């Protein structure tokens, strides 16, 4: 919880219809089990103390008394549990019967929330027994539980517009839906979220019919996305009456459009996951259209509670190692096809607008220039232009290896572009003499002179051909500043500018897997197998690439992981370190993660000046570094506070 993760559980215990003693005993057992697993919020199903399928037994005094007795035992059992528990029961107030959720914490009943939408159609006949719950919160006494206004001044809050907030975890504000509430055109949880609720607990008794689980799952997932919230859905299961219906105990925990965990249907049990409250708050903060109103001015009451212990939450949920790339191959292929179309459509429009009939691409035999060439070919196809109008320029120099040179040539031929070779050794050596640089000193001047010479050639060729220079640099390089200012940093349109390196690989792989041309497939696979390198330093004695980018700046899969959580959610370095350590366990040790995280922040802050003057290019994913779009950062911002946060981790090393 120190990193704002809330461990939550949705629970379906074994019950017997109408046997409140048996049900209460099993609820308490489940509460204790959940607490041992460090759960801080446990949500049980609708009317769990009595059973949902009691029908006219709800009109029997003994069942209502038994339900209150059960709630009293649950309140007592919660005394030593540092956990919020939410259970359902029938509750009589002012001579009307309500279907309520009772919120219990540390020996106290924090409040009762009644169901607002009472179904009375198809197999549901709740209106026969239950009244519509009032929105307005009132204060009631319940003598059976020891809450008596006149004698002790204590009371229970009762009403639908009731939220529950943790004093020492202010990001946690709980709102409640009860079953049918979720299925409404505008569920109550919409209003709860606009009044600051970050987590919605839904106590449900949704019977099972063919295909209903898919619809239910989508409802929960989409509502969590709409509300930018956590959504805990606890369903009734086996133990309910099967006179006409069957209940499957389909429990779900969702967060902002993603299902974090769910139970197997037709088996009572518990599903547990960690809701990232920090992520939800960050996303709401970013979205200026997500309006949060003061709860009280919106007609809400807030009941506060305080956890005894705010400690690190043991993570069990899954985080993708490549957050920019879908893990499922079908989803990944669909995403790759979509991105290639976005890139090509953006370039098509720019070529059309500028009346360019040719395009100039610097082709090195590496991943980025390969993707740029593939996208350019696709854009030419969309325009109905002959691919021979694409001028693919290879510019061998001191670091060029035979492998990358040959791949560049073969790739150009198979795409149908026009290959132009312009060796730059002589021009660069002349430049060294002009500026007085010793060519035996392989420093930044030695490297960048080559990159700028290549850009000079590309720009002038574009002028000669009435064409456009297509940028090849990707988003990961822009984040790290791994580009030569006014060298490969510059172009007339950057098709890869919002594509991170980990995604570049999959885009090229997707093209390789879907092309019918065997030779093109083979050369693309060899490009994928080639170490990432700018090839600005001479090869080794065997003619192989000596300058490997990831040896110098770190693994791109780590940097892309860092970049995603920095830009998408504004996480602190220490939280990103913790997530990376958990996600890459077995791949990188904590010292390695620490080293490259520190490197990332130093470079990210120091290299903003390169991003401040980026050429145009299409945004393809949820984040981009364009100064005209997602990322507007001063070039002179200090990194000190972020480095200090990283240094707090040194005691772990």
Mean pLDDT rating: 94
Strand order of the largest sheet: 13-12-11-10-9-8-15
In percent, how much strand structure appears in the residues? 15-25%
Overall strand count: 20
The major pleated sheet works out as: 7 strands, mixed
- Determine the CATH superfamily of the largest domain: HUPs
Q: Whole-Å distance between the termini?
A: 22 Å
Query: What is the CATH topology descriptor of the largest domain?
Result: Rossmann fold
In CATH, the architecture of the largest domain is: 3-Layer(aba) Sandwich
Gyration radius, in Å? 31 Å
Number of helices: 20
Q: Helix proportion of residues, in percent?
A: 25-40%
Key structural traits:
653 residues; alpha/beta; Nitrilase/N-carbamoyl-D-aminoacid amidohydrolase; Rossmann fold; 2 domains; seven-stranded mixed sheet; six-stranded mixed sheet; elongated
Q: What features would you describe in this structure?
A:
With 653 residues, this protein is of the alpha/beta class. It has two domains: 5-305, Nitrilase/N-carbamoyl-D-aminoacid amidohydrolase (4-Layer Sandwich); 329-652, 3-Layer(aba) Sandwich (Rossmann fold). The chain is 38% helix and 17% strand. Strands 13-12-11-10-9-8-15 form a seven-stranded mixed beta sheet. The radius of gyration is 31 Å and the shape is elongated. The relative contact order is 0.08. The mean pLDDT is 94. Catalyzes the ATP-dependent amidation of deamido-NAD to form NAD. Uses L-glutamine as a nitrogen source. ATP binds at residues 362-369, 472. Keywords: ATP-binding, Ligase, NAD, Nucleotide-binding. Pathway: Cofactor biosynthesis; NAD(+) biosynthesis; NAD(+) from deamido-NAD(+) (L-Gln route): step 1/1.
